[in-house]
Design brief:
Belongs to the short-chain dehydrogenases/reductases (SDR) family. This protein is an alpha/beta fold and 265 residues long. It folds into two domains: 210 residues, NAD(P)-binding Rossmann-like Domain (Rossmann fold, 3-Layer(aba) Sandwich); 36 residues, no CATH class. The protein is built from eight helices and seven strands; from the N terminus they run βαβαβαβαβαβαααβ. Strands 3-2-1-4-5-6-7 form a seven-stranded parallel beta sheet, with helices on both faces.
């Protein structure tokens, strides 16, 4: 299927590895030029080299920046070699806040979580959505979490911040932008085979004394697909949401979790 987005420009955040990289790979494979943002220099350069090698006709602009800061967002939006802020596609993504007990989180912890997982996506939407509307095409995909639908008690910071973003998107996506060719959707990952998942299991192993692989096997058994997701298949879903074919989908929370969520709705 031709997704109809060849030659467009995408900003992909947190794109040096994991789910963000999976999205950048899928978009660039469709001929989309990408500005990829991350904090780590070496990993970002490796990601950029891989994208260029796989897709020689695509422009790849790596930007080393912290997207959760105003300075980082300005650097990404105005990257030399990029579209000068005129992005057709924006994929927002930032690392989730740490787990813990809500009794131990102070105001600073909450503000940091809100900055990364709610305010940053809103600021990126604000910076790009009017230009998209003027040009008659735009796709914004926010990588959030399956915890938005099924909250996890130890991930309260993430539950709160990402749910706030979800509520904001529910309103703004229906504010008339769809009539101008602009859609805003959230993509909710469950358990994907990423570094973050490995770190989570390593932490659990250190607390419980159980082997990491035993914990991972137990988690797989709770997923109807009996496996963890791969970043490449997550990226493919993202690319579809960014395509010409997804113009009638907006304000949605698209869950990719191998069937782990047990609810009907």
């Amino acid at each position: 299927m031709d997704l109809g987005i060849k030659g467009k420009w995408a900003l992909v955040c947190g794109a040096s590895k994991g789910l963000g990289l999976g999205c950048a790979q899928a978009l660039s494979a469709e001929g989309v030029n990408v500005v990829i943002v991350a904090r780590g220099v070496s990993e970002l350069e490796r990601a950029a080299e891989g994208l260029r090698a796989a897709n020689p006709g695509v422009t790849v602009v790596p930007v080393v920046a912290d997207i959760t800061t105003p300075e980082g967002r300005a650097k990404a939006l105005d990257a030399p070699g990029g579209p000068g802020g005129s992005f057709d596609i924006v994929v927002t993504n930032a690392g989730g806040p740490p787990p813990g007990d809500f009794r131990g989180w102070d105001r600073d912890a909450w503000l940091k979580a809100l900055d990364a997982n709610m305010i940053t996506p809103i600021e990126l939407i604000k910076a790009t959505v009017d230009g998209m509307a003027q040009r008659g095409f735009g796709r914004i995909v926010n990588i959030t979490s399956s915890a938005v639908k099924a909250p996890i008690d130890i991930l309260g910071l993430s539950n709160g911040a990402r749910s706030g973003l979800t509520g904001f998107v529910a309103g703004v996506s229906r504010s008339g932008l769809a009539a101008q060719g602009v859609t805003i959707n959230n993509l909710l990952p469950g358990a994907f085979d990423t570094d973050r998942l490995k770190v989570t299991f390593a932490g659990a192993a250190s607390k419980t004394g159980q082997p990491v692989e035993s914990l991972m096997d137990a988690r797989r058994q709770t997923i109807p697909a009996r496996r963890f997701g791969q970043p490449e298949e997550f990226g493919a879903i993202c690319a579809f949401l960014c395509s010409q074919h997804a113009g009638y989908m907006t304000g949605q929370n698209v869950l990719a979790d191998g069937g782990a969520y047990p609810g009907t709705y």
